[in-house]
UniProtKB/TrEMBL annotation:
Protein name: Dihydrodipicolinate synthase family protein
Highest taxon, organism lineage: Bacteria
Record's keyword terms, sorted: Lyase
Transmembrane segments: none
Xref: SUPFAM superfamilies: Aldolase
Amino acid sequence: MSWHGIYPILYAFWGEDGRLDRAAMARQVDYCIANGAHGLAVLGLVTEVHKMDVNERLHLVEMVGDMIAGRVPYAVTVAEPSTEGQIAFARSAAAAGADWVILQPPPVKGTSQADLIRFFGTVADAVDVDVAVQNNPVNLDVSLSADGLVALNRAHPNIRILKGEGWSVDIDRAIAGSDGAFAVFGGHGGIEFPALLQSGGAGLIPAPDFLPAQVAMYEMWRDGRTADALDIHRRLLPAIVFMSRSVPGMLCYGKRLFAAQADIDIRAERAPFKAPSDFGLEQVAGFAEDIRTAVKTSGPHAAALSAAAQG
């Protein structure tokens, strides 16, 4: 498979009983697929993975895999701190329908590049699905150089996807330096999405807040309509920057921005959480209008985008 496109990483919606709201999660999955997602991903920060124990994470992986039912590819982040833990979790994800897994590096400062290659390689050799590594030299304690990525891929060919969340200049260097060995997906909400595409990136793993518009941007770029794609990006950028200021802010306001589009009722939150302010909700209302304006564009995507933006 050639992995590419927009893979929204799902929010966690909670019920009043403190557990995941299955109906809301199913609504989210169906909305994303109906609005053009090329795949779905779970267990990033917007999934509130830091608020779940391992059993809850496994339950979510299985539940979403059942909801997707093979309609689109499925990617699962694996962040267990040991190779044994990552192998077990990755195998469980594959059994639940994951087509590829995203391995996070162990949270140990000072880990050498050789040790990191050994860590990722040991996990990759033990699973039967394609593997991505999360390489974020800006926010993670350890990362790989372009040469390290090439060495990793040559020794372990099923490691052929990269989730690169650093600065676009660093991602471009990794793409060029790894000689096309990886399908590179960006993150950070798509704040530098056009730069990622220009450097040869394969796609984006954002929150689903701007899904219809970002799907349109991706398809326009592939069709050579770069000016139209850039116009949509410029219109969305203030909202993307607002949502990217902090994880608690994104979980507060980004989730509400998305829920309004997908007609999902936020019934409860899992502590600790940030409560919205009246000012913040006013900003979200303005961003919703920005999305509606952004998708009123000419071309084959206009009708579907306008319908999606109206919720």
